[in-house]
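Can't paste images in this forum, so I'm doing it all in text. The chain is below; anyone willing to post the predicted structure tokens underneath?
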Amino acid sequence: MIFKKVENADLKDGRLFEQAVENDKEWLVDFLVKHNADVNRRDKHGWTLGWIAFANMPKDRKHEARSRDLPKCTFKDPTCWSEEHKTKYVKFVDATSTSSRLRAHFGMVDHGLVVFSRVRSAVRTDHPVPPDRLFYFEIRVIEQGRGSKIYIGWSNESRQPNSQLREDLCYYCIEPFEGDNYNVFGCGIDMENGTAFFTRGGVRLTITRKGIKGRVYPTVCVFGNAKVVANFTGEIRPFHYDIEEERRIYEGVSPSELGVLKHLNEN
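Text version of the structure:
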């Protein structure tokens, strides 16, 4: 019945576009793409319907899709935590400006001090990971409560971050250790290949994830209490991990060319 209504609807009606991108309704996105509706229209993240459909494809279909004429887009990269997409027990130190939505307190906060709690909380970024390149971000753990667990990873457009607060394939779990504060953890997400990797203290871990589909947002979830600071651009503070080398490999730069580039950067 719903599909019949869509078939009979005006495909140039902007409401169909809004419904398709609101929660990444895959069937509606595919329908509009198939009928060349709103081909060049972009949503608030800078995405077209074609790129949303691309993000939902399995890896083996993406190479063929990239060879077609997908419109060039200037995607809005994740830059800070989202005020709109966070749970109750997430508090930003200073929410008056975008740049200040990087430092977040998770858990029961009283007069700036984190007290003991077993609540669960989560927050995701303002924009999704771009579909056409490798994206990397880091968090610095300033404080982690006793017995608390921090999960760094991603969540999908169609779900609120608190609905994915569980130990699954979307996250790397940061366990608390005595004297382990001020540790830096990172996550690199490659949407074209549907894979992800994690780092700790600037060193790449052997833990990887695959099969990532759809539009995903960098996300941090906490069981208990924690204070973290995020780094999404590497501009205010350099990344601990050498993501530039990783990006050159991703873009097809040969090992010999990498050596030349490294030499030039060092001089």
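The mean pLDDT is 79. The two ends are 66 Å apart (CA to CA).
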